[in-house]
TrEMBL record, chains A, B:
Keywords: Cell membrane, Ion transport, Membrane, Potassium, Potassium transport, Transmembrane, Transmembrane helix, Transport. InterPro entries: Cat_transpt, TrkH. It comes from Alkaliphilus serpentinus. It is a multi-pass membrane protein. It holds the Pfam family TrkH. The chain crosses the membrane at residues 12-31, 43-64, 76-100, 127-147, 196-216, 228-249, 310-330, 351-371, 408-429. This is Trk family potassium uptake protein. It is found in: Cell membrane. One of its GO terms (cellular component) is plasma membrane.
Amino acid sequence: MVEKFKGNKLDPTQVLILGFASVIFIGAILLNLPFASITGKSIGFLDALFTSTSAVCVTGLVVVDTGTYWTAFGKTVILILIQIGGLGFMTMATLFAIVLGKRTSLKERLIMQEALNQNTLSGLVRFTQYILIGTLVIEGIGAILLSTRFIPQLGLSKGLAFSIFHSISAFCNAGFDIVGGGVSLIPYVSDPVVNITIMLLIIFGGLGFPVIVELIRTRNFKKISLHAKIVLFMTALLISMGFFAFMALEWNNPNTIGELDFGSKVLASAFQSVTPRTAGFNTIEMSQLTNASKLLTIILMYIGGSPASTAGGIKTVTFGVILFTIISVIKGKEDTELFGRRLSRFAVNRALTLGVVGMGLIIFITMALTISDGGFTFMEVLFEGVSALGTVGLSLGITSKLSELGKVIIIIAMFIGRLGPLTIAFALATQQRKNKGTIRYPEEKIIVG
Amino acid sequence: MVEKFKGNKLDPTQVLILGFASVIFIGAILLNLPFASITGKSIGFLDALFTSTSAVCVTGLVVVDTGTYWTAFGKTVILILIQIGGLGFMTMATLFAIVLGKRTSLKERLIMQEALNQNTLSGLVRFTQYILIGTLVIEGIGAILLSTRFIPQLGLSKGLAFSIFHSISAFCNAGFDIVGGGVSLIPYVSDPVVNITIMLLIIFGGLGFPVIVELIRTRNFKKISLHAKIVLFMTALLISMGFFAFMALEWNNPNTIGELDFGSKVLASAFQSVTPRTAGFNTIEMSQLTNASKLLTIILMYIGGSPASTAGGIKTVTFGVILFTIISVIKGKEDTELFGRRLSRFAVNRALTLGVVGMGLIIFITMALTISDGGFTFMEVLFEGVSALGTVGLSLGITSKLSELGKVIIIIAMFIGRLGPLTIAFALATQQRKNKGTIRYPEEKIIVG
Ligand SMILES: [K+]
Ligand SMILES: [K+]
């Protein structure tokens, strides 16, 4: 043991995984305490673990209704877990180090780098400060805007609690709500202030801090980095295409937006386009969507938000690189080109691999759920699996009815989904990487496709 | 127009696409003739086109029951279309050229190369002879084996017709049957001769001629090419894993194999593992499978058979390269290594792109079907879409109930599925490839995932 710590045998990704697992475990113990539940009885460890994982992994899938099941203590624990998960466990650790006056060591910064997926070591400490201040400012503004609706409606203390909880939950892309009754934000489907505030919080949270910081510093689209260009372009593309597609597919559906007035139809379609990436709130009943809209939601959940953000999924940049690679292949070009820049083979390979691994995980988790919970339709378990892997939190209503094995599968999916398939893969491969051989096999041609 | 032919503006892939389209069109006209239908009335052009596309693309999805709807003339047309599709339109053209004594030109051989996906130009004419002789020999042996069951059961002429039809249909991975009643091979679920003969025909057809020829020439696994090694390894892996998975998932399902004796359970599970890649016969009722088995079937249909064979799908080699690439990434290795060989970046990129494009096509076609045919469950349209794109022909029973738009979508899916997404993509990109610029954009780093 001493040997292990002394020798620094754990690499950053392993520390990250153990860190997340520890926070989830502590959260589960706290939520399992009798006074966390309004019934005064312990919820049971599996459901406590499920809720804690869902909070730390900012997913939002719930086995009990957050608003009515948990006490103030339980809700506070969940909110803290969301904030820790959203900011990222390792960012928090580094922040504590700064606050306590300790200099951050190279190793701590390396861990940070892994947590934030940043390319350079320099400026990581300052970057961390940006994150903390930025998060507090944005969540503060969000809470103030929401309080203009919640305080008049619910009174000062409850209204304030509502505003803070939902602002944090939205910016962290957590999707937990305390509205009660398991209806998410359906009661606010026509409220422009709540809708627009929550949507902006989700979008900012899902853009990722590197892009937000760059946007504040540089206001000229032509001058920003390729990374920020792809993030902004893909985000705008996905939101606008999702918006028009949802409106077209649901326009006449009486169970969703069919009976709403024009303004509410626009608002609900916009919200429905933003929330799968990867917030998890909903203002219309998900199970009532047409199959086409459900599939569209699944695609958006798979793609998710942007790198180094609070969002999940394979990420906008990954999807953008795949999209532009396919376009390049169709155009017969060797390189993946976008915005007048060429991408490295490594980036292209990594994006394609991530896309395929993401699909593979969806198939694996869905297959497991069809076996563990055979009573549900295929769409229901597919939707649930993608939602868990993308840390989205939308559901067709089966979460609380899952079998014990089904719950364990979703817990695993949320954990893998949050830490990223490749992070886990790399952590597993540390030994091999360290002993990386110098032998290179001869190349041989094959017929592909 | 003259200019176009003189200037050789059409490249091999475009000739291939136009050739296939022409054969399909001629087939549709023939099947649309009143005396092709047993009713004596024309079936209507859309259904004739559907049937012709299904036959030429060796898919096997049908809007009418082949055995009872078509006259002997209609069945013969279908069988010829299957044989043309199975051997490949361009192979046929080159064969005619040889038979008629004409020397094959470089251009014809280039077209052949495209059709067979071969790496070298040399020996293509001899290779074509192998194909013709090999096909006739294998289909002949298959027909003789099947006739030992069909002739005693149905009499000489009908038994012989049955044997020839199903032998060709199986080797070409077409999946058309003339058993009647739309039951495919369900009546023969417990017949070892029919099952094993059909399975072997499917497997040989799906291995691809390059591998069959290599197997005949070289009988030492260590000495064969990397391509053949991957094909044989992946085929064995997929069949054995599929076999055990189906047996486990369906063991207690009374609507499929639950009530069968042990031997029939083994036979049915083996058949169920072989047929999705990409034959399309079935010996149990597909719609009665568990959701887990349906998903497994979808995965096997997506993967399909091997390159340069009669099978569809993204191909075993593509899937193998993706699998080994992911393993290499997990191991932290830069190169994709398998069987002591290294793959070129180009092969890896092409495989990953094919995998992603295949997934994208499935999503696109399924989305279109959820819109055109909203009355079916998501699983039903997903299964149908994957079956069409993989040119498999299995169905949960919705083919004949599809809307007109739905039939058009399936026709397009079968055509795209047969000619390969990249073949079409390359054909579209000819102009760009010809005018390929020499400007290379500067490289810029981004954050992926
Ligand atoms: K979420
Ligand atoms: K087929």
